[in-house]
Amino acid sequence: MLTLTLDTNCVSAAAAPQTSDSSAEVAAILELVDRAKAGRVKLQLTAAYDRDVERWRDASGRARRADWLAGVPVVRPVGGVFRLDVSVLGGPDVLASDAEVALDERLRAVLAPTKSARAIQGHEEAPSLASKAFSDIDHLIAHVRSGADAFVTLDMATILCRRERLADDGIRVCTPSEALALL
Predict the structure, then answer these.
(1) In angstroms, rounded to a whole number, what is the distance separating the alpha carbons of residues 90 and 143?
(2) How many Cβ atoms sit within 10 Å of the Cβ of residue 118?
(3) Which residue from 116, 111, 117 is spatially nearest to 169, judged by alpha carbons?
(4) 73 has pLDDT over 80
(5) Which of the pair, 114 or 62, is modelled with greater confidence?
(6) What is the pLDDT at residue 116?
(7) What is the DSSP string of the chain?
(8) Residues 137, 104: contact at Cβ < 8 Å?
(9) Which residues lie below 8 Å from residue 18, measured CB to CB, with a gap of 6+?
(10) Tens of pLDDT, residues 102-145
């Protein structure tokens, strides 16, 4: 059985679709959930999902997403690497291995080259800035650590447009409709 990691934007699109969300992709997310309920696929989120949600100021939006997730059979959270000013003690994130440090460096180069060259302010100076800067990287590292089969996202601007480079690191990235085709 395949295990799929859902990006935060998949939860957002399914729980509170926006006009910019493809109706076909939202339908594909809902079909993935139906198949998970039928025991035909496993779905997971990463610890970075919880950090993404903490940054949202819209309490009703957070509640809609939590309500939607309550009906989804999700294994969560899958921890990533521990980051100062991002991770919490006692949470699911762990100290990075040498291989994970190297993966982190490669992902920074692929996804956010400008962020690896400048300092990221700590939580005291700019609450949530560090977690936002590393969100995509943390999602992907946790995905790799978990051994899941594909990372499912709607993020064309950052992740999907770099899928070939991510595949070089063994990271299969796909849209929800492409994930359905894998099943």
Answers:
(1) 20
(2) 8
(3) 111
(4) yes
(5) 62
(6) 46
(7) --EEEEPHHHHHHHHS--TTS-HHHHHHHHHHHHHHHTTS-EEEEEHHHHHHHHH---HHHHHHHHHHHHTS-EEEEEP-B--TTTS-TTSS-BPPPHHHHHHHHHHHHHH-HHHHHSPPPPTTTSTTHHHHHHHHHHHHHHHHHHT-SEEE---TTTTGGGHHHHHTTT--EE-HHHHHHH-
(8) yes
(9) 12
(10) 788 888 788 765 444 455 444 445 545 445 667 888 899 889 98
Percentage of residues of the chain with pLDDT beyond 90: 49
- AA letter at 24: A
The CA distance from 5 to 8, in Å, is 10
* Tokens 């291989």 belong to residue: 99
Residue with tokens 């982190």: 104
Closest CA to 50 of 69, 26, 24: 69
* 96 within 8 A of 137, measured Cβ to Cβ: no
Least confident range of 2-16, 45-59, 114-128: 114-128
